[in-house]
Amino acid sequence: MSDEDATYTCSPTMRVMPVVFFNLLVYFVIGLPNAIIGAQFVHNTLGFSTAIAASTISLQYIGTAMGRVIVGHRIDVFGPKAVLRWGLILCTISGLLMCLAALIPTSHLMGMNDTARYVALAVALVSRLFIGWSESCTSTSVTTWNLRRVGPAHSSVAISWNGVTSYGGIAVGVTVGQWLSGLLPTIKLLPVGIFAAALGICGFIILTFYKAIKPLPSKGKPMSFGLAVKKVLPYGAALAAGSVGFGTVNSFLALYYTENHWTGLGIAFGVFAACFIFMRIFVSGQIDKHGGVPIAYMSLVTEAIAMAVFCLVHNNTGGLIGAALTGAGFSLLFPAMGTMAVKTDGPEFHGILIAAYSIFTDITIVVSSWFMGGLRDHMGWGVMFAVAGVLCVSGIAFSAAFSRIPGCGIPKNTQ
Predict the structure, then answer these.
(1) CA proximity to 305, closest of 327, 334, 338, 274
(2) How far apart are CA 341 and CA 336, in angstroms?
(3) DSSP label at 324?
(4) What is the distance between the alpha carbons of residues 286 and 156, in angstroms, rounded to a whole number?
(5) What is the mean pLDDT, run by run of 10 residues, along the chain of 415 residues?
(6) 3-class SS at 175?
(7) I want to staple 132 with a disulfide (CB 3.0 to 4.6 A). Which of 38, 64, 204, 286 is the partner?
(8) pLDDT of 95
(9) pTM for this prediction
């Protein structure tokens, strides 16, 4: 008996928990090295610039975007468990590569010389690609699997809990990673890599006890990734617009506070995460009641207001309010438009549709961090936040315009 054929006595939320656990595990691993691998290892230990250190973190998003292109189709053909298995294997490899990168500068064969520095950097960068590929395999597989478990009536539940475990896992992972790095002060990345690899192996073992669901038979040719992108374009455009605001705060809030000599950065990030998680848990049910598009448009307006607060209220309080509004606004955007994106074709194509939809935020976060950084350097914080706000609210117009293109954003049951 498949998951979607089973008779459940529990709520849709409880149905997604056994599978969304793997999303929590992988995002926890993603968070483990975030405070260590860039600033402490690449910059302090290896001696590379802050720009290279920052790119070490963002490379994960590039790996995730690369993985989306092939992961969705493989889920539809082989089933989510098969692809999730690869996600956990890639997670383990990423941890092992972190261990190798940490050991290279201390090796008696190489020592700390230019060759060792560049080899260690290369291994660290490859580890980031592997965790990015792991993320694409895991998050897309888990979402697709849970969509089958709860059915179309509760699609927002399946998508929302992926976000809760994603950001919750990263937040806890960063804290644990900082603690682990203190166990070996001279090789801080090593215990982080060991723990990451161990978690990947444990997740792989646990997955073997799960019963796979069979892929749904396709009634036609396999959907190409390009066609999937076209189908979800109106919803992906709105997601990309909102991702600009989220990416700007995520990338620059720490620098914004540091340059202004404000205290309470940890509180600001905590408020951001709390508002994000609160909205996902307690308000996401409104998506199924009122539809994804109006909720998404309200989310974009909320993010635009957040950017206006950053522009106009230039103090610690403004930073807290802006962070809170950004977390609350971006929280419901992904599931709101995601529930619409998966309706553009049958459930047998959910994997590739989710992958095509998700790539909009992966690419936007990478590009916007570079673009917004340039704006800040040349025109200041106010202009950077103002442009981010305009781009957020412009997502409403882009979404509406793209929905008029034939073949874009049309639910299958209306075609």
Answers:
(1) 327
(2) 9
(3) H
(4) 9
(5) 51 86 94 82 81 77 85 86 95 96 76 79 94 92 89 78 83 85 88 96 95 76 84 91 88 79 80 87 78 89 95 89 92 88 82 87 82 83 92 90 78 56
(6) helix
(7) 64
(8) 96
(9) 0.81
Q: Which two tokens stand for residue 25?
A: 């595990």
CA–CA separation, 158 vs 21, rounded Å? 12
Distance from C-alpha of 151 to C-alpha of 7, rounded to nearest angstrom: 12
What is the pLDDT, as a whole number, of residue 148? 86
Rounded Cα–Cα distance for residues 395 and 401 (Å): 10
Rounded CA separation 101/369 (Å): 26
pLDDT value for 112: 64
Neighbours of 52 (CB within 10 A): 15
CA–CA dist 328, 322 (Å, integer): 10
331/246 Cα distance (integer angstroms):
9
Contact 142, 350 (CB under 8 A): no
Tell me if 179 sits within 8 A of 172, measured CB to CB: no
Backbone angles phi, psi at 200, to 5 degrees: -60, -45
Give the DSSP per-residue string, 136-172: HHHHHHHHHHHHHHH-GGGHHHHHHHHHHHHHHHHHH
